[in-house]
Write a structure and sequence with these properties.
Blueprint: H1 6-25, H2 37-48, H3 54-66, H4 68-72, H5 80-97, E1 107-108, E2 111-112, H6 114-118, H7 120-139, H8 146-160, H9 165-175, H10 182-192, H11 194-207, H12 212-239, H13 242-245, H14 251-254, H15 260-286, H16 293-303
Antiparallel strand pairs: 1-2
Helix pairs in contact: 1-3, 1-5, 1-16, 2-7, 3-5, 3-11, 3-16, 5-7, 5-11, 8-11, 9-10, 11-12, 12-15, 12-16, 15-16
Length: 306
Amino acid sequence: MANSHPEQRFLAQARDLIEQALEANLPGESDAGVLAPDLIAAMRYAVLGGGKRLRPQLVCATAASLDPDWQYSGALHRVIPAACALEFMHAYSLIHDDLPAMDNDDLRHGRPSCHKAYGEATAILAGDALQALAFEVLADAQALPPDMQLAMLRTLGRACGWRGMVGGQALDMAASGKVLTQAQLARLHAGKTGALLGAAVELGGLGVGVGADRMTSLTSLGAKLGMAFQIVDDLLDVTATTDKLGKTAGADAANGKNTYPALLGIDGTRARLQELQQNIREDLAQLALAESPLAALAAYIIERDY
């Protein structure tokens, strides 16, 4: 992502802080209390081995966009724990997603999936440990007021659980080989992919203490961003190469997954994405965020090619 504009420079700054915080919050093999070095190595492999960091950047971009003075005050550090927690949760989900019992994918970020590098048992445990670490990091964030901390923990738990990401994954597995309607497919993706992306926007809003009305608008925007992200992913799965994606291209079709191109065709999917993009722009304008780090990141999510 180019960084010639203030919004993009902010996103680059946020990403640097996120990378530093992820490294700082992950255990090392020499840390006190380490029981299984291979487990720690697998956790670090899964988190630090690449990725766009879109979810933690969304947390930071939302907070900074809602309160520009907050951005320049250096208080960006206040939402970094929430950003890290979300990325640990995402890394756990990818480990489990790639397992043979799930999507059975051997590549992630251009490298062997965690279970290919460390074995299935260690990979499962690494995912479990990262999920627990996500809540630990957020619960230990002493810079957050207790009521804000509790609201963030609740948001994260809801997004990753039975009504969100895990529920969406279960629905995805149950629907494999079946043809879903567009409404059913939207529901699936709203859980599996959209829940964490939506939570990122909500966590950013919570970090600056937005009111209930504005939070409702942010929640709606986050849901649309999550859907747009998934539609782009579906398109790239059939139009991009494995080298470009860093994961196996065409895997969705090979596994009989329900996708937007399979349901609407490529042209129909692109039309749906354009419609969604316009809705997102309108939402950003209504929030007075048409020119902001959040708007820049939203554009990247929709226009990316990997």
